[in-house]
Amino acid sequence: MKTELVISASSDQADIALLEDGRLQELIKEKGDDSFSVGDVYLGTVKKLATSLNAAFVDVGYEKDAFLHYNDLGPQIKSWQTYLRRTLKGKQLSNITNFKAEPNIEKDGNIGDVLKQGDQILVQITKEPISTKGPRITAELSIAGRFVVLVPFSNRVSVSQKIREREEKDRLKKLVRSIKPKGFGVIIRTVAKGQSAEELQADLDNLVRKWSQLHKGIKRSNKPLRIFREMNRASAFLRDVFNESFTSITIDNKELCEEVKEYLDEIKPGASKMVKEYSGQMPLFQFSSVDRQIKGAFGRSVSMPKGAYLIIEHTEAMHVVDVNSGNRTNTAENQEANALQVNLLSAVEVARQLRLRDMGGIVVIDFIDMNSAENRKVVYEKMHEEMKRDRARHKILPISRFGLMELTRQRVRPETNITTREENPDNLVEAPIQVIDAIAAKLAQIEIREVYVHVHPFIEAYLTKGLFGSIKKTWQKKMRKKIIVVPRDAFTMLEWKIMDKENKSL
Q1: Chain CA centroid to CA 407, Å
Q2: Cβ neighbours, 10 Å, residue 419
Q3: Which segments of the chain have a pLDDT < 70?
Q4: Is residue 272 in some structural domain?
Q5: Contact status, residue 13 vs residue 29, Cβ threshold 8 Å
Q6: 200 and 74 fall within a common domain
Q7: Residues 68 and 156 both lie in one domain
Q8: What is the DSSP letter of 505?
Q9: Residue 182: which residues within 8 A CB-CB, separation 6 or more?
Q10: Which residues are registered as beta bridge partners of 143?
């Protein structure tokens, strides 16, 4: 399998597309001013205690207070509070080797015994604001690296459950215990399997440096304050997914390109060679056919080979997926065998759609009815197999007697939702020909000699038709400037944009 990463970045956002064998599998949109991202650490203030919920509401600067349950305080919360008070007074160094830890809190205690209204507290975002809910937070801070996760004020060393070999587990535990700094616990990630002591040591050293940065960021403030930010989402994404299958990483932003190169050389020396900066005039997502794939993958209806299709509906409570055979030709011997073929095909596409749209919470899939229990088991196992590549925590239940499969998937950020349907232009917009006039009027106001007009492919065809007498040629003669018309799959029919050769809007 060939894995490619395509990153299109501008001043206000970065779009990250992961392709496997040329097929779009994940799409992440990161805004430049992204606050309250998973992993960010804030100095917040306890606004209210909800004793009935055994929780507190903490002001972290979002319009709605963040929810902090007692179980999310972590057993070392008293040590954290002591550390925070000392740091704010300037009496605490980042080195916690000799820090006198406070006793752990009771597992089934009350939040009122630990926190009170007005207390300042260090918290980390575990779930981004979604819909009407504020961010979900934890007071048990951790710093994630490539191979390990650093947990301050803990001495525990634990290994990912996905590493099943007892021998390897014992090796990693013994190794990490011998190199971990005093005062810190460590969680060993799945990708640490088979790694050497040097690589684990380098990762730990990097995390200790980040801990020092976090410490320096703590300062007195009457308002909530972000004191530590996760790395940019492109690097964080690479940290979690980078493996031997990666063949290329293409980025259209010079600054981000250098950042990614630097990070890749940290985690795997020489890997930066696969990073290429794209400088073409055509938008990168258009050039790499990502825009076209987005248009086909994010609609209510998702087509599959041989006529089968999915209908995906989103509600407040859950996501519902309906599997349809459509006009698929029955190639199997009977209806049962045909249903099995369609359902196996659908399991692959549903697993892809969950990753692509980042659908979280409860998902119900209505497969085509199958009478055979063995066939239902085959589909269930296929779904399990396809979901192994999904990094989000999930749980899948067998197909019920009604032909429904239920699963839950970790939800840490709002789902990616892209509108692919367009409104009826007869009712909602001006006459299409007026768009052409608007483009011409705008071009006439621009003084630079070379401009790029980005439009829908249909409009591009209209502007460039005719060898000598096209509208584009007429404009060039009249305005005495070079005009390049760029077709954009991502644009709606009447959407347009004029840019210079540096890809800046005019």
Answers
A1: 20
A2: 9
A3: 11-12, 31-34, 231-233, 327-333, 412-433, 467
A4: yes
A5: yes
A6: yes
A7: yes
A8: B
A9: 97
A10: 150
